[in-house]
Amino acid sequence: MKKPLKFRLPKGQCWTIGVPYFWLLMFFALPFAIVLKISFSTPIIAIPPYEPLLEYAEESLNIMLNLGNYLLILDDSLYYNAYLSSLKMAAISTIGCLLIGYPMAYAIARAPKSSQMLLVLLVMLPTWTSFLIRVYAWMGILSNNGVINNILMWTGLISEPLQILNTNTAVYIGIIYTYLPFMILPLYATLSQLDMSLLEAASDLGSRSLNTFWKVTLPLSKGGVIAGSMLVFIPVVGEFVIPELLGGPDTLMIGKVLWQEFFNNRDWPVASALAIVMLGLLIIPITLFHHYQAREMEKEA
Amino acid sequence: MKKLSFSTVMLWAGMFFLYAPMFVLVFYSFNASKLVTVWGGFSIKWYGELFRDQQILDAVGTSLQVAFYASTMAVILGTMAAFVMTRFARGWGKLTLSNMITAPLVMPEVITGLSLLLLFVHMADFLGWPAERGMLTIWIAHSTFCAAYVAVVVSSRLREIDRSIEEAAMDLGATPLKTFFLITVPMISPAIIAGWLLSFSLSLDDLVIASFASGPGATTLPMVVFSSVRMGVSPKINALATLIILLVSLIAFVSWYFARRAEAKQRASSA
Fold first, then answer.
1. Within a domain: residue A248?
2. What is the ipTM of this complex?
3. What is the pTM of this model?
4. Is the peptide bond before A48 cis (omega within 30 degrees of 0)?
């Protein structure tokens, strides 16, 4: 039945296939090619602030590939440290989200069917409100005269306000807070499809509940763990808003550095090179995510 | 049994973690004192001041317009892409399309934003269009990344529906286009509506991509909020946040209620 469908609407099909392809090639694939191009050009003070790569003069076509931007990134410890600390912060926050999110997803998946949808809604609701405002909320809570310090001083636990805002601790709290729902959702999706009879079989055969968890539940929810971790890890590496608002001057994250290079220093070539290197670092997690997502989709089909 | 209770405790602790900051935010929006964290008595004066702030009102207008057009475009593109992915393409073509459409889901926003801005600069260079960056360029940028979310939502629905109904319509002589609008669209309409709402909220919320894609002409609400928040906490932003939280919760619970009622009706009719 598929073949005749294909023959019957050659023209309509052309349009249906053509439009999304054209749009994505134009506004998704082409921009990356341009970023790659700019990353090899020389920064100058002009509009636009870079030199062209191709030059045609005196009957010769000159292609100038300037590797200086990449060499600068390798050379300058600022960039190197920014990448390293971004990866480290993303890894720690992912583990934090997993430790908090897994039990939550498990509890939702085990809740009565009628209340599961409401619980998922409650987890997802914060993400539909403004991301910026959820980060902003923590500014008021963590600041020196904020809610946490007020409570701690009032109970007499501390006499001086703790400096939490503008430190890396605040960035971790902000990241885990805003990305937690994205961890819970895929975990819940796999855990709710888990065959309960397997767990019963394990306990009938005398397995203790903790043992069952490590040997049965966790391996079976591997797909959800990977999907959730990637959904947190990948965007956090390039995060800009959270380190900017909650972090301090010593919070070094690559998204923030890229933003500063682009908007404050107007150094477009270096910003592009930073983006390309970041993409290179993220290629493995992104492929991993796609691999598992494709497998999930095939399972569904 | 012990593990179950541990996870339930974690669930409620996690819910507290998710909601407590929002309650603090709402609570301090009614604070009379200018210092956000010192309680100076109940007052709604910040709401009044919010509605007198012309810059914020203009930005709300811009954001709503961009979000409306972007989510509409995203629904069209995303549905088409989902249709192609589930019905036509096979092999390499399918893989390329599905990779391109789902990539913005996980791509760091700074990369997407930077790449789109450089594209717009190049286009202005070679084609003379878009002459200046503003609402149009934000619209293009938002349509592209929102289409990814729509494609995921719609394609999972397209895989679920019974294809024999479409085939029956076409066997009875309906053209493919007519079949699509009269048979397929009504069947996937919940997914289309969900995709539209999701795109709308994503577009309203986006700061990073809009900052890259916009020019001097257009300022969206997140851009105004961000530049004000950078200077520190302000009770006016708390008032704005309260209104946003109220609106989103209202929409979410109304749609949840209707979804549940529709489900109950379906169950009753099938029983």
1. yes
2. 0.85
3. 0.86
4. yes
